Amino acid sequence: MFIRIVVCSALGFIFAARPSWSQSYPTKPIRLIVGYAPGGSVDTTARIFAPKLSAELGQQVIVENRAGAASNIAGEYVAKAAPDGYTLFWSSGTGLGTNMAFYQKIAYNALKDFAPIALLMYQANGLVVNPSVPAKTTKELIALAKARPGELNYGTAGSGTSQHMTAELFSRMTGVRMTGVAYKGGAPALVDLVGGHVDLVFSPLPEVIPYVQAKRLRAIAVSGAKRTPALPDVPTVGETVPGFAFEGFLGVVGPAGMSPDLVARLNTVANKTLQDPEVKKKLLDLGLGIAGSTPDELAKHMREQTALMIRIAKDANIKPLD
Questions:
Q1: Less CB within 10 Å around the terminal CB: N or C of the chain?
Q2: Cross-strand bridge partners of residue 190
Q3: In this model, does residue 299 exceed pLDDT 60?
Q4: DSSP letters of 23-77?
Q5: Per-residue pLDDT tens over the stretch 65-96
Q6: H-only helix segments in 148-202
Q7: Would you tell me how many other CB atoms lie within 10 Å of the CB of residue 308?
Q8: Which has the closest alpha carbon to 32: 66, 78, 64?
Q9: Number of domains forming the structure of the chain
């Protein structure tokens, strides 16, 4: 929280008489930059929030997709933007630090070049397969993968994404060997899964639920520690593989150098929008966990998750990409 210290009554009068910059903000549209193609969970949640944020802030909030390199392109764009609150990064943990475990050359440092605003949601992944895959349970999938080592293909939204890391953790804990196929986002990966070009995907629940409900994909399990109310009959991976649990997160940040009062203003608006009944229902229906946080809490979570992903990548002997 930004605390203004009044040195004397004269200065106090001056500050009181002149509105802070955050009080006049915004005076033009705000862009939420998303690092993935339209249709994925990051994009979907941004579009749920944008109209409510627009109403709260009194200016249009526009979702802008800059897909590629597992959101590194979008992250670099925001990190280099003016710290005036008009360019914000709406991102999963991938773009908020965990890519540091998987890329040797990133043009920004998420832990230094962003001003954290709010941790908004947790998201488990759904383990879904093409209906042609002859496995209906986690146990059957493990047996199939062991019988056909390296033959099963899984789609991801890019190296280092939660889809990729969930699959890596699953492989390590079960002893199976599968082949990853990277896409520019979760939505394209799911399209190819439906088309039978890959066999399975660990993908955020907001992305897989519509396909499961339409019976175009088969849900085998969810990656979180608990079952989700959105798919109550689908077990967790941990029910078959003891100790397995993996959840990603979604947050919003701006470029480093944003004024503390502006960050505080955006944090208040973001948390208020998160508690809006309509927004909350849509997020819960998508299988998301509601978070909400202070900027410092998001910063702490980013540091912890980045350290965790670096450790998992090292243990899995994943070589960083150029």
A1: C
A2: none
A3: yes
A4: HH--SS-EEEEESS-TTSHHHHHHHHHHHHHHHHHTS-EEEEE---GGGHHHHHH
A5: 999 888 999 999 999 999 999 999 999 998 99
A6: 162-174, 186-194
A7: 15
A8: 64
A9: 2
Instruction: With beta carbons less than 8 A apart as the criterion, state whether 91 and 298 touch.
Output: no
Q: Tell me phi and psi for residue 289, to 5 degrees.
A: -95, 130
The answer as to whether 27 is a domain residue is yes
Structural domain span for residue 233: 124-239
Residues 153 and 231 in one domain: yes
β-partners of residue 33 are: 64, 89
Question: In the predicted model, what is the mean pLDDT of residues 140-156?
Answer: 97
> Residue holding tokens 């804990």?
173
**Average pLDDT value for the chain:** 90
Domain membership of residue 321 (yes or no) is no
Angle of helix 277-285 versus helix 41-57 axis, rounded to 10? 180
- For residues 234, 236, 239 and 243, what is the CA-based torsion angle, rounded to 10 degrees? 180
The Cα 156–Cα 154 span in angstroms is 7
Reported as a single tens digit per residue, the pLDDT across 173-198 is 999 999 999 988 888 999 999 999 99
Residue 172 CA to residue 150 CA, distance in Å, equals: 13
Encode pLDDT of 9-37 as tens digits: 344 443 444 445 556 899 999 999 999 98
Q: Is the peptide bond before 26 cis (omega within 30 degrees of 0)?
A: yes
**Within a domain: 38:** yes
- Parallel, antiparallel, or unpaired: how do β-strands 218-222 and 114-129 relate? antiparallel
Report the distance separating Cα 83 and Cα 86, nearest Å. Answer: 8
**Residue 283 forms part of a structural domain:** yes
Give 310 or 271, the one with higher predicted confidence: 271
